Amino acid sequence: SQKIEQNSEALNIQEGKTATLTCNYTNYSPAYLQWYRQDPGRGPVFLLLIRENEKEKRKERLKVTFDTTLKQSLFHITASQPADSATYLCALDMRGNTPLVFGKGTRLSVIA
Amino acid sequence: DTEVTQTPKHLVMGMTNKKSLKCEQHMGHRAMYWYKQKAKKPPELMFVYSYEKLSINESVPSRFSPECPNSSLLNLHLHALQPEDSALYLCASSQMLQSSGNTIYFGEGSWLTVV
């Protein structure tokens, strides 16, 4: 069966450390993988997109990797800050007229 | 600030009421979406409109009725809802439905409480 899993429901880290969130999938062949941030009571906001033929993408303190052999994406936030506390959702972007498939999200708490 | 505008932000309705949620975007996007989200769960897709035609209905009960009057507007008509339908309803849009690295722009959501 098709599955998309984000490894932790919740992750607590100390301010200044690097947060690493994992997204694994099975029986999907995404053309792209996207990451979104969602704050409580608000809609998700797009952060980064990585293509299947890209290994890594960076944007400021964010880095995403995509390994289509392992069927995994890692999302890193370096020098984390309390303001980074939110839920982070990965989403698979398939070929064809299909909408994004969202993971359940990881709730990140950065403690000062 | 999001470029997808949803109204109302909060709605309380009785089980016999008829109400509507509204959504507007002016980015020229041709795909528009309704999602339902319960606490601590990911957004759950309900409907997708592509070029103003209903493209996907994820087996949503008929008490939810979507409408796309034009390329900028999307409505969700609500009738005879149940308390378990209480949730955050998110509208979203993207350039088009086909995969081309489209990103989805979400509205702030409408909080619905059914009493």
Number of helices of chain A: 0
How would you describe the shape of chain A?
Answer: globular
Oligomeric state as shown = heterodimer
Provide the gyration radius of chain A in Å: 13 Å
Largest sheet of chain B: 7 strands, mixed
- Overall pLDDT metric of chain B: 93
Order of helices and strands of chain A: EEEEEEEEEEE
**Largest interface: which pair?**
A-B, 28 and 28 residues
- Structural class, judged by helices and strands of chain B? mainly beta
Instruction: Please give the alpha-carbon distance between the first and last residues of chain B.
Output: 31 Å
Q: Which strand-content bin applies to the residues of chain B?
A: over 45%
- On the 0 to 100 scale, the average pLDDT of chain A is 93
Number of strands of chain B: 11
**Structural class by sheet pairing and helices of chain A:** mainly beta
Number of helices of chain B: 0
Q: What's the alpha carbon Rg of chain B, rounded to whole Å? A: 13 Å
